[in-house]
Amino acid sequence: MPGAPALELSDLVSCYRIGLLQRKREVLHGVNLTLERGKCLGLVGPNGSGKSTLLQILAGVQRPERGVVRVLGEDPRKALARTRLAYLPEDSPFPAELSALVALDLLGALAGLPRKELRSRAERLLERVGLADQRLAPLRTFSRGMMRRFGLAQAFLSEPEVVLLDEPTAGLDAPGFAVLEDLISEARNRGASLVLASHLPSDLLQHCDDLALLLNGHLRAHGPTDELLAIKGRVQLELEGMGPAPLQELEDWVREAGGKVRSSLPSGRSLLELYGQTETHA
Amino acid sequence: MPSVEGRGRYGELFRLWMKRSLAPSWSLSLLGLLALLSLADWTPSALQAGGLTTPRLARGLERQALWTIALLLVSGWTAWHGARVMGRWRDGEWSWISSRPVAAFRVWLATWAGASAGLGLLLVAVGMVVEVGAGLGAETVRLVATQEVDDARLEPGQTMEVHWQGDTPTTGTVRVFLRSSPGMDPTTDVRVEARRGKKVAHTEVRLDGRRGVEVEVPTQSNRPLIVVITDTGGGALALDGSTPMEWWRPAGYEWFGSCSVIWRAFLGLSALLGLAMGLGGRMSAASAAGLSACLLLMATTGDVGYRRPWIPLADLPAVLTIVGEGRLPMSGHLLLPLVAIAVGASAWCLAGRVR
Prior knowledge:
The structure holds two protein chains of two kinds. By secondary structure, chain A is α/β, with parallel strands linked by helices. Chain A folds into two domains: 37-65 and 72-229, Rossmann fold; 244-281, no CATH class. Chain A contains nine helices and nine strands. In chain A, helix 6 (174-189) links the parallel strand 6 and strand 7. Chain B has two domains: 11-138 and 254-351, no CATH class; 141-252, Galactose-binding domain-like (Jelly Rolls, Sandwich). In chain B, helix 1 (11-21) packs parallel to helix 5, helix 5 packs antiparallel against helix 6 and helix 6 packs across helix 7 (285-300). The relative contact order of chain B is 0.16. At the A-B interface, helix 2, strand 5 and helix 3 of A face helix 1 and helix 4 of B.
């Protein structure tokens, strides 16, 4: 449906059935949420807050108990809507007996990708996520981080318009993190909408236009990331090329001007930079 | 751009489940075990001692033994394999399947068909091991038709006639099952005649317990067939109605018997697989496998096979017995493939929603 928001949730209620008597336990309580096209939403909250359930409902994996769910204006339970979205599940439950390449063939075929394109895309993505050398190895031999990279490859295989990533950074090493950031940036550049669910909000904050905070199945806060996370009257500076004496002078000046220096720590090198340097020395 | 109408969408899923049915650790162990067992002599010592064994019977008994062991193992494994499907889906696989533009029922069909195809290939491999062990064998006879008979008792000197209904046997042999009645004299003699008008063929045997007595069908006559049984000995005998009267005709080779077993087992186990998959949606894998195994036992025990040959697996024990004699069973019931497909596909309703 042209012009419809990327995601639209209205009074969404979801339940699990537990025990022999299949009693209902509500895990999402009347969630209302909208995400405009081309935006990136960070879905944050502690473990058990309902993030994964929400993503599963958006991906059409689970049926909500009540409420309205629309992805690009369509019900995600309909196959048509799911041609335009991709989903990375939390636990990477991909068929362990298949090689990475064959598993991507399977996942791409289920997504309806033409066979001719599929193999070249799969090869390209495996190269990109750093699994080209392991493309013929069974997934059961993959480490957690490698499995996550594979999960990213399958999520971006069909160039989806909506990408739902559940804990995408879990188990990723620094180069893997860079791959993820690269894939997210590329998806954003082609106008895709993203939802990144994480219990560590700091992970991917710089990519998120909006932030939604889920607590015990309730949507407690939702809005632009800057507004939600900014602390009024506080800024963070990163300085380079100053010795201890001018730095001390700067701090004194700040105090005289009525301000307060809350932290002054040497900036650290990123792990990726450290890897690069070590490889150069080697 | 992905599409809803993508061709071959479910083919990869079919292949995945076919591969899972042929997991090397399971299939190679099974084939290795059968290869080892085929080295043993499966002819009972009582038959050997009595000089009653023939090469055809020895080959048949080996086929029967190996197939029985193989089918017991494969049936149990099939029930478990099917029951685990929904468990795998619930444990996470459903998340990458159902987030794709797929129809849930077609996913079910592709999964079931793929797992069944793997099972079929496994049965073919088992058949090859069995035939390598037993030797392919010579030409033999096939069961063409059966006719229900009522239990009847004959005292010494008494005669009874059984009229063959339906298509009259024109060639080959007819077999009736008789047993000497326990009493003062547990053995007796019997004369069995096959009459077609004026043409008569007969055989005379001594009965000691239960046995099938076979008589040639007179040819060159278009008259109906009447089987006449006369108790010519000193003890009573009984016509055993638990097994119907059989018409046998020369057709095919002994190894066709394994083909019959493969076909029937494939259809039956596919239905069992679907049933176990469906039950797995409602209960734990262990409970679903157990319940499926119980249903399998109900279908294959007793005389269900002869009475309801359209029930998948029901006639397999009878077929194995026939193969054990070095003979060939009747062709499978025409409804059998349809019933197997209907059970496998409709078990989807039993499974309910995964989430």
